[in-house]
Design a protein that fits this description.
The chain is of the alpha+beta class and 249 residues long. It contains six helices and eleven strands. Strands 1, 2, 5, 8 and 9 form a five-stranded mixed beta sheet that branches. A two-stranded antiparallel sheet has the order 3-4. The chain has a two-stranded antiparallel sheet with strand order 6-7. Helix 1 (4-21) runs antiparallel to helix 6 (229-248) and helix 4 (105-117) packs across helix 5. 31% of the residues are buried. Keywords: Signal. Residues 1-26 form the signal peptide. This is SCP domain-containing protein.
């Protein structure tokens, strides 16, 4: 029979490996007020693009995108996101805020405003960025006319910068459907003058898919069954270890 201390060392080591490999905990935005503010901030800023947009869709919250953002933000690497999931492509905007311990409503609001304000570096007529492309991409995604769904999450991250110095912060990530694709973000013109068939109604300059009285607050796009597939694998490995331990003793 295998000595008890050998089994215990193996069990402790296995549990350590499982938790070491498991994704870091991230935080869904479950507060209804924060969701409402994020949606309203996006819609208000989308109304304010210059020149004015004629085909800008209204944004609404998606629980599916929220859960996907929650999964994606776990690794604290927004710059290396894979945006293809279940056959669909999602756009994103992200912001790392250093030296804060708890994000507030203001934190989320200023993040959206910062993404939008980066439009000062974007030339709509030439479709070019006068700064680093990633900065302009945040603005273009927020102002992407065909985006109609958003979901956000955040995580506490330890980031190493180019000087190899570590610092702590909160990473905020918002996912969008649909994603920007390199073309102009919208068609300029009078508000709602070029609304697509999928959003034929007009809500204060934004193309809406339904009238104000029956506009849905959330339209999930895809199943989330596989979002937490890695957690299932970790649980399975742990159960196998416990089973082996029971067979030995």
């Amino acid at each position: 029979m295998i000595p008890f201390w050998v089994v215990m060392k193996f069990l402790i080591f296995s549990i350590f490996v499982i938790f070491k490999l498991a994704p870091a905990e991230s935080y869904s935005i479950d507060d209804h007020l924060i969701k409402t503010i994020l949606v309203r901030a996006h819609n208000q800023l989308r109304r304010e693009v210059q020149p004015q947009a004629s085909n800008m869709k209204e944004i609404s919250w998606s629980t599916s995108l929220q859960l996907l953002a929650d999964y994606k933000v776990k690794d604290c690497k927004s710059s290396s996101l894979s945006l293809d999931y279940n056959g669909l492509t999602y756009g994103y905007a992200s912001r790392l805020i250093k030296d804060i311990t708890e994000p507030s409503i203001t934190t989320f609001l200023t993040s959206v405003e910062e993404w939008f304000d980066s439009g000062q570096y974007y030339n709509m007529y030439d479709n070019e960025c006068g700064y680093t492309p990633r900065v302009c991409e945040n603005y273009v995604q927020v102002a992407w006319a065909n985006s109609s769904q958003i979901g956000c999450a955040y995580n506490y991250c330890t980031i190493r910068n180019y000087e190899s110095n570590e610092y702590y912060g909160v990473l905020i990530l918002c996912l969008y459907y649909s994603a920007m694709d390199g073309d102009l973000p919208y068609i300029s013109g009078d508000g709602c003058s070029h609304c697509p068939e999928s959003a034929p109604y007009c809500n204060q300059g934004l193309c809406a898919s339904a009238t104000a009285t029956d506009r849905p607050s959330d339209t999930p796009y895809s199943s989330n069954a596989s979002v937490y597939k890695y957690n299932a694998w970790y649980l399975l490995v742990l159960l196998m270890i416990m089973y082996m331990f029971g067979k030995l003793y």
